[in-house]
Amino acid sequence: MKKYIPLLLGIMLLSACSDMQKANNGDVKTESQQTKIASNIEKNRAKSLSDIYVPNPQVSDDTNLLKVGQKIKDEKGEITLKGKASLNKTFTIGSVEMKIKNVKLIQNSPTYSLMDYFHYYTESYEKFQFVKVEVELVNKSDEKVNFGPVSHLKTSNNEVKAFHDDFFIEYLGGEIGPNASKQGALGFIVEKTTPSLDWVELTTSDVLDSNKKVVGKAQRIKINLEK
Predict the structure, then answer these.
(1) Three-state SS at 37
(2) Nearest-angstrom CA–CA distance, 201 and 189
(3) Which residues pair with 108 in a beta bridge?
(4) HEC-encoded secondary structure of 182-193
(5) Residue 33's pLDDT band (boundaries 50, 70, 90)?
(6) Would you place residue 22 in the very low, low, confident or very high pLDDT band (cuts 50, 70, 90)?
(7) pLDDT level of residue 67 (50, 70, 90 thresholds)
(8) Count of alpha carbons within 13 Å of 194, Cβ hemisphere only?
(9) CB atoms near residue 76 (< 10 Å)
């Protein structure tokens, strides 16, 4: 009997090692799943405009246009900052969190090759002013929703622009998936610029669920401009 004891101990040791290996594999799998979940959450998180800023193909890059009166000139033309509001404020509309980062009033003198594009939006296509609104949208619910960050924009000179007047066309309105996000900018050409704009008022759309039911009422947001 004694001669079988080492054999039995060896079998028991191998069995214990096998059980430990299975447990470790389970831990690895759990960690892998957790990493995948965290990665998905990170992908769905709205990044700041400075993280993934993509210049508009029709307008000069205004990222470094920070002081009123400052000018930037490049191959797309010349832009001048006429007013600004560095808001960085989050508003909650239903399940949607909308962060308005910056609002800028910019004078644009496009290069000749881009004038035709702006002629569709204004007769003053050689030189005009526009309001740029930078936003981040996050749907905090587990269901898809429909939402538009700017349904209407009204200025202190009593000029009203609708969502279809947005010439940036970054498709920020519409469907937002469950726990998903969008970010970008909208641009609205304004014709009434005298006197210089003191404020703009944004009206969002309602938040609608997949059945077109209102789950969040529209908001009006007034933003004063620094001149």
Answers:
(1) helix
(2) 14
(3) 79, 128
(4) EEEEEEEEECCC
(5) low
(6) very low
(7) very high
(8) 1
(9) 20
Q: Looking at this protein, which amino acid is placed at residue 122?
A: T
- Which uninterrupted H or E stretch holds 123? none
3-state secondary structure of 46: coil
Cβ-defined contacts of 30-38 (< 8 Å, 24+): none
Predicted TM-score of the model (pTM) = 0.79
Q: How distant, in Å, are the alpha carbons of 8, 59, 187 from that of 133?
A: 76, 14, 7
Please tell me what DSSP assigns to residue 226. Answer: B
**CA distances (Å), origin 121, targets 118, 156, 168, 196:** 5, 20, 11, 20
- Establish how many alpha carbons lie within 13 A of residue 189's alpha carbon, considering only the half-sphere containing its beta carbon: 21
Closest by CA to 200, choosing from 147, 148, 161, 163, is 161
Per-residue pLDDT tens over the stretch 159-200: 999 999 999 999 999 999 999 999 999 999 999 999 999 999
Burial annotation 143-166 (CB, 10 A radius, 16+ → b, else e): eebbbbbbbbbbbbbebebebebb
